[in-house]
Write a structure and sequence with these properties.
By secondary structure, the protein is an alpha/beta fold. It has helices spanning about 20-35, 45, 55-70, 85-95, and strands at about 10-15, 40, 75-80, 100-105. It contains 4 helices and 4 strands; from the N terminus they run βαβααβαβ. The N and C termini lie far apart (about 40 Å).
Length: about 110
Amino acid sequence: MSKKSRIKVIYVASPLRGDIENNLLRAKKYCRKVTKMGFVPIAPHLYFSFLDDRKTKEREVGMKMGIELLRLCDELWAFGKTSAGMEEEIKVAIKIKIPIKVFIVTGK
């Protein structure tokens, strides 16, 4: 399948730190939205939820692996209030010229 005819892959960036349990539920909701729009969601904080984001080393590993996945994506979509991790992802997306879309999230 040529790149032109394949389904777009969307990197889903959203907060994780703080209220981790609810932030993971929100990330699932954002992935569902991406899927309903006909795209493939990539949400590293869901895939790597076996890592403990509260432990510095594990957070660093998760961020590093997430950035590698970002490099494979067509776009980055940011949901919710921008966190420190999201800022890092957005900086990389800008550097490697991946389009970014920001979604304003209302309510919980």
